[in-house]
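Example complex used in Figure S2.
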Amino acid sequence: MIKIKPEIPQIKLSAWRSFLLLSLLVLGLVSLAGRAAYLQGMHHDFLQQKGELRYSRVVEMNADRGMITDRNGQILAISSPIASVYADPKVVKITLEQLKQLAGLLETSMVEIDDRIKRENSRFVYLKRQVVPDTAEKIMKLKIPGIFLSSESKRYYPESEFAAHVLGFTDINDEGQEGVERGWQESLAGELGSRRVIKDNKGRIIEDIENIRTPKQGQDLVLSIDRRIQYRAHVELKDAVKINKAKAGSVVVLDAQTGEILALTNLPAYNPNRRSTINNERIRNRALIDTFEPGSTLKPFTVAIAMEVGKVNADTVMQTSPGTLQVGRKTIRDVSNKGELTVAQVIQQSSNVGTAKIALSLESQTMWEMFNRSGFGMLTNSGFPGEASGILRPYNKWRTIEQATMSYGHGISTSLMQLARAYTIFASGGELKPISLLKQTMPVMGQRVISRHTALAMSRMLEMATKPGGTAPLAQISGYRVAGKTGTAHKLIDGQYANKCYISTFVGYAPASNPRLIIAVMIDEPSAGKYFGGAVAAPVFNKVMSGALRIMNIPPDAPANNVVTFTATPEMDEEG
Amino acid sequence: MFKLNIFFIFVLIACALGIVTSQHTARKLFMELENEKGIERKLEVEWGRLQLEQSTLIMHGRIEQIAKENLNMTAPAASSIQIVSISNAEDRLNPKGIEP
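Predicted assembly (676 residues):
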């Protein structure tokens, strides 16, 4: 082979080609720099945000509904987290065996569950709301894809039916429906918050970026209720309603010095922990939203104003003979001809004729003002939803007969709460105290209605009602002086006085020397034979009061052997 | 001048590494904080549950029933209660009237 030395060709390149290459490279560099500057400078925010989206998440922050406690800090309502089971029908994969187990745990039928998880067009369906934590755990152990738990809170009421009407209840979405839960919904309810955080690849939160909304924790509420007195009141009321075969009943216990509601209970009642026991009849907080004609329990107000304006004093003698009083075409009756009575005896024996005579000596305006300033016909502003104001008609529309009947509590309507509040006048030396469902920390200012002198005189008369010759022997409490007034009224049904339907009431306070507690009892349609307030309502008063006095450690103001047995003066006959 | 620049570059690198480590520690600590918060929340829930349990156990009705049925207790009648007024009690404790 001949080796030929290759000749390297000398190629002349024109200068423009290298120049072109260079300029292309420079152009590329410039455009890259330009793009970088563009992204970095002008599109910065947008890109930053896109980037953050990859690792930042918005998480919800829990807020619990506030607790409700009684005046001693004991729990009446509390929220506890609970799980709800839901499914995503698009993801669910379930075997027959799992379905069987799930149905067993949820206590529903397999068909029902199967039906729900086959809703193709939905991505969220509740299988069961509010399951107990144990069950929830077991469900999670089944590890069925597409079935999840969501955390909710459920409200518990440890007192169950004993404080049902005060507290009310919340619905499944944690919104107050009745009672305190509804009246104080705004402050009790918490507001969910949310914040943006950075999560790592394992889903752990590693950094807080910003607070989107701070959660608002629900505020705890301290009620004026005393759990022990509330219990006592409910138990005794239940007994009385059963014994007297009554349709309904209410008890209100007030602190005579501060106007705080220590107990408030009604029958029929329901258990707020069990939705199935709730119906319209049971839900009614009768003591606040139902009104009735108070009957004789109103007499002290008529007599007090007459004493206040100087028409009568405790010893003024009234002629009630012959036991009837003709006003226009109507006749006002007493049970019997009681002859001459002092004003004190008119209250003690609950004489309609005597009270009507006293009332007719008054200007209608004076009487109206007394009733009005005692809070009749006006809301009590307890904060409770749906409270009734009762009816007190304007005085310029009163006829003479109406003025007469109103003096003993007919032709005027009031709620039991209003009645109890009005008695703070006699218990506190002449001042009407504002009532409250929340615990008061400051001394409460009342509104003066009558002078201290008149109030004390009336208090003595009310004490006589529980002594021999009075209408309420059963209200006497061993070791304490008790003042109070019975009431028995025909029930108004559709504007007519029903013949054999009565409302029996008793309002009283103790210890009479320095009143601490006011208790008002109302029994609706007692139908076991007895219907006088002194026979039906007074025993409830007695039991609740003696229990409450012991619970509150109130020292006795009378010797232990102060209870006298005597027959009650009947307060009304069939005519009312 | 060149040496100084090199020096600054090293300082810069050190600072940058410092930032990274401190960021890392911050995140670690934050994670711990989150953990603790989770525990706090769990304890709160537990506390609520215990409160509820306590509340159910000290229901007046339950106590009354146990006192009556299991322990045979009754509320004393007013006649069997002796009221001791505070001034009398003090007299008895200090018969000579000496201030305590």
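Chain B has one domain: 2-93. Residues 2-93 of chain B form one domain.
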